[in-house]
Structures are given as structure tokens and as C-alpha cells.
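Example 282, ligand NAP.
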Amino acid sequence: MDQIVLDGAARARQLEAELAERVARLRGSLGIEPTLATILVGNDPSSEVYVNMKGAACRRVGLLPRKVFLPESTTTAELLAAIDALNADPTVFGILLQHPVPRHIDERRAFDAIAAAKDVDGVTSLGFGRMALGAEAYRSATPGGIMDLLSWYRVPLAGKRAVVIGRSPILGKPIAMLLLAADATVTICHSRTEGLAEIVRGADVIVAAVGKPEFVKADWVREGAVIVDAGYHKGGIGDVEKAAYARASAYTPVPGGVGPMTIATLMRQTVEAAERTAGLVG
Ligand code: NAP
């Protein structure tokens, strides 16, 4: 069986090259440095790594990263004030609030405080609702990146049985909506799902968004299925057992699959936000 490796790193490099050209044009039209602001609350080491990776991607495409670090003790009110200040700042075109925030903060309220025009990470309730109804909206970055990658490799989705494992607001739920919009027949599974292995065995397309290393076993994967593994754990382990790849017609490697596409999607949506402001797109 010919097997396709859904090479997110390669697709992200190509997207970034296109974005760098668009940003160079934008600088001329805007006359200002287009900025992506990232807010990190607390000292979670992996969140710090993600924020730094996004900063590096900004520099590669020519966007100016602005990192806002807030202490662990930050209150919801203080975080909302920081978001408001960025909403009002005309040099900031996108705002990313790094998930997760400390538990005492009302994360949903904070996400929803991000102005829709600057919600380039696709985290607001309004953006989700618009995306789910097929209206113009910035997509949640990881699901948006997955859909770009599947489309780039022309993976057929219409009429296919897609099984999403996970129902988080930033990943499981939005990817399910986007697969539905692509005419897949979608099943969403979660921690209370009964008979999960059997459900996954019926899938043409499996999206693993569980957050548990090698949770999806090779013998749950039918021959010829497409595996999208959003998980990333120490040592390059995903949410799907590596042994499952041998059965797949296409799969996203870990690392180098979904991760780079998440960042590239964030960059693309920030560039689009800046282009809208510059009047270069509708
Ligand atoms: P999350 O908020 O922790 O959600 C995990 C989901 O998995 C929940 O919906 C949960 O169900 C479900 N789940 C947990 N145990 C299960 C079980 N035994 N059987 C079936 N479902 C189960 O995680 P997330 O933020 O969506 O992230 C998921 C994975 O994607 C993580 O590995 C994360 O690191 C990765 N991720 C990657 C990127 C990237 O850029 N590559 C970005 C974001 C996330 P309940 O709702 O019932 O609790």
C-alpha cells in the first residue's frame, strides 16, 4: 500500500515562505510593524516553550512578536485589563492567550474578551459559533492547521467516517465541526464514551486529541485509515501508538505533523487580520 506521510513541517515551511512575502508587502501599505501579542500567565515550562516557538515563527515571517508575561497570581480582572489594552492597541493585529491559564482564572471569560478582529487563534465563543455555522471566522489554530494539511494532501473527507477522540473547546469540538463542514460523517468520543475501540475501528479518518501518550492502540486502526495525531508528549510520542502507522493510508508524524501546522495557521490568520486592516482583503 502506498502510504502518505502528512508532512506538516514541510507544508508549514511553504506557508511561511508565502506569508513572508505578504508581510513584506503589508509593511509598505501599513507603514507600521504588524504585531502578534502573546500573553502567558504563570510559569508553566511547556507553555513558555510554545510561546517562544510562536515568537520564532513571527520573526521568520516578519511579524513582530510581543510577549506579555503575567505572574501566576494574576486575577481574572487583571488579565481582562491586559487583553483590553491589546484590543485597543492599533499596532497589535492578533492576540494569543496561551492555554492553559492558572486554574483560579476564568479562562472562557478571558478568551471571550479578545476582540473578534484580533482572535487569530480562534478561541472566542463568537468565532467558534461562526465557524461552526460556516461563516467567515478565524479557525481555532490546531483544527485549522489539520484541515489545511488534509486539503493540501487531497485526503478525501466527503462521505468518510471520521472519529474524533477528545471534545475540548480548542481542538476536539472545532475539528469535529470542520470535518462536518467537509461532509465527513463525524463521531465525537470522550472520556465517557463506551466501546471506544470498536468505534475507532469503524473510522476512515481518526483524529486523536486526547492528551494521553499512545492512547490509541494499533489494533483499533483499520487498514487504510487516515491517522491525525494531535498529541505531543516527551520523546516525540503522540496520542497514537507508532505501530498504528503501518496500517494507515496516511498519517501525521509526531513530531512534524500537526504541531508546525498549528503555528503556521496562527501566523496565516495574523497576516490576514493585518491585511484586513490595511484594506488589502475584504
Ligand atoms: P484536553 O482539553 O485535555 O482534552 C482532552 C480530551 O480527551 C477531553 O475531551 C477528554 O474527554 C478526552 N479524553 C480523556 N481521556 C479519555 C479517554 N480515556 N477516552 C476518550 N477520551 C478521553 O486536551 P486538548 O487541549 O484538546 O489537547 C489534546 C491533545 O492535543 C494533547 O496531547 C495536547 O498536547 C495536544 N495539542 C496539540 C497542539 C499542537 O499544536 N500540536 C495544540 C493543542 C493541543 P472529557 O471531555 O470527557 O474529559
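Summary: The chain has a mean pLDDT of 96.
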